[in-house]
């Protein structure tokens, strides 16, 4: 997964105008207590970040 794909997927499931705020402020325990933005900066795999977002948002399996 690319960074572009990660952002596209998150944009599909987060309200308009909230994506950046959510990525900067929501701490995900699955990412070791990082936000999405911090996880990207730390070089975590984009697929791992998406998995954590998917779990946090409780999305259906088809979006995994």
From TrEMBL:
InterPro entries: DUF3046
Name the UniProt record assigns to this protein: DUF3046 family protein
Organism: Luteococcus japonicus
């Amino acid at each position: 997964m690319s960074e572009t794909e990660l952002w596209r997927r998150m944009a599909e499931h987060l309200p308009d105008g909230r994506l950046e705020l959510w990525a900067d402020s929501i701490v995900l325990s699955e990412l070791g207590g990082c936000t999405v933005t911090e996880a990207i900066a730390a070089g975590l795999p984009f697929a791992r970040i998406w998995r954590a977002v998917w779990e946090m948002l409780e999305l259906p399996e088809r979006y995994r």
